[in-house]
Specification:
single chain; about 425 residues; alpha+beta; five-stranded mixed sheet; 10 helices; about 20% strand
Length: about 425
């Protein structure tokens, strides 16, 4: 299971190295990485169009390293390879939309993060219980001719917000946890290092039951609803928090736009006037990412607790105007659920089911959709009527939709 640790770089460990020299060096490397990555992106596009003839290896594959190593001799070779690999991965993700002219070719900004290969850094623990990152930022040739060494040690700040950061740092320093390609990036005036690492999945109470299916639907009265095919357990995750946040976001967005319209600014004044709006969008992205993380953890924890072997997610309802998460990044939420579930050995299936809110999950009969009605009643088999007299209460439309995903086979759902 892949995880990441973000740590702030406090200062250089060697007192003879100043922050002024380090800042100048990191900004220069970031700009060089930007130019390398954009060069690779351009030639990947040319290779996809059949127009690339300059950077092909004998096997016919694109290989930009010789050209980049010759043009940027001060950059370590491992860093060049990491930048080329990252650019290749980004292009492969966006290749289809770029080739079909749906989006422009992605580009890297001049202050992009600096990739550090696994062999290019190490973590050490000093006698004073502080952690130091030993990072290679210059090639051997540049270290011999310049005033800075090739490998520079940085003191790292312990992430006090993450209680597990100290133990993870210790495991990384001892080498008991597998490290990935790190990255150095700048946030405002501070520099940070992000270290990805992989851990073994936590042991569960028992093996997942492949016959136990959990359906998860996007609700019209709740954000998410879940149900099982062989269990009576059910639950919903309310969407009041998201609706309230989206309402506040819309009010603040309208206020900023009205202020901009009244100001009448043009040129550079326009950029300054739109900075609050850009900051608002950035906060919204962070909020959505954190909320998706919480929701995905909630779903997977329920599945793991009940030893569920399969999770079926609703994937064809993202344009439905009546669901709570209609204007929400549902694909990102499904991806987080998939990543967390697969780490515990739980299979995830995405189902583009039709009419799961109006179809009875007991007999399969189609009912007249009641817009705005929270409760479901089947006029054919009476499902929902007799449940009114039980302690379980009514059958909600969202629960019926989730149970449809869990119960019916693909041929019955019309997928």
């Amino acid at each position: 299971m892949q995880r990441s640790l973000k740590l702030k770089i406090v200062r250089p460990y060697d007192e003879s190295v100043t922050w002024e020299d380090i800042g100048y060096l990191l900004r220069g490397i970031s700009y060089q990485i930007c130019k390398m990555s954009n060069y690779c992106m351009t030639h990947h596009l040319l290779r996809a169009l059949g127009m690339e003839t300059e950077n092909l290896n004998p096997q016919g594959n694109l290989y930009c390293y010789p050209r980049l190593a010759k043009e940027y001799p001060d950059v370590p070779t491992g860093m060049i390879c990491a930048a080329e690999g990252r650019a290749r991965k980004v292009f492969q993700q966006k290749a289809r939309s770029v080739l079909f002219s749906e989006t422009a070719l992605p580009t890297f900004r001049k202050d992009c993060s600096i990739p550090i290969p696994v062999a290019g850094y190490s973590l050490l623990k000093t006698e004073t219980d502080t952690y130091v990152a030993n990072i290679q930022l210059l090639s051997r040739k540049a270290a011999k001719t310049g005033k800075l060494p090739g490998r520079i040690q940085f003191v790292l700040a312990n992430n006090w917000r993450d209680k597990k950061a100290g133990s993870v740092l210790q495991q990384l320093a001892e080498g008991t946890v597998k490290r990935g390609i790190a990255s150095i990036f700048r946030n405002n005036r501070d520099w940070y290092i992000g270290i990805p690492y992989s851990v073994d999945p936590a042991p569960s109470d028992g093996e997942p039951d492949p016959d136990l299916v959990m359906g998860v639907a996007f609700g019209t009265h709740s954000a998410l609803a879940y149900a099982f095919n062989n269990l009576l357990k059910r639950g919903e995750l309310g969407g009041e928090e998201i609706l309230s946040h989206q309402k506040k976001l819309l009010v603040r967005k309208n206020q900023i736009q009205q202020q901009y319209n009244w100001s009448g600014r043009k040129g550079h004044g326009r950029e300054n006037a739109l900075k609050p709006l850009q900051l608002l969008y950035e906060k919204e992205r962070n909020y959505r990412n954190l909320t998706n993380e919480r929701y995905a953890k909630w779903v997977v924890e329920i599945a793991k607790k009940n030893r569920c072997g399969v999770i079926r997610l609703e994937s064809g309802n993202h344009n439905h105007p009546n669901i709570v998460l209609a204007h929400w990044p549902q694909s990102a939420l499904r991806k987080k659920i998939r990543d967390k579930a697969e780490a515990y050995g739980i299979e995830v299936q995405e189902c583009a089911a039709d009419k799961i809110q109006s179809r009875c999950s007991r007999c399969g009969a189609e009912q007249e959709p009641a817009v705005g009605n929270r409760w479901f009643i089947c006029n054919d088999c009476g499902y929902g009527k007799e449940e009114k007299k039980t302690a379980g209460g009514f059958i909600s439309v969202d629960y019926n939709a989730a149970r449809n995903l869990a119960v019916w086979e693909e041929k019955d759902r019309g997928i």
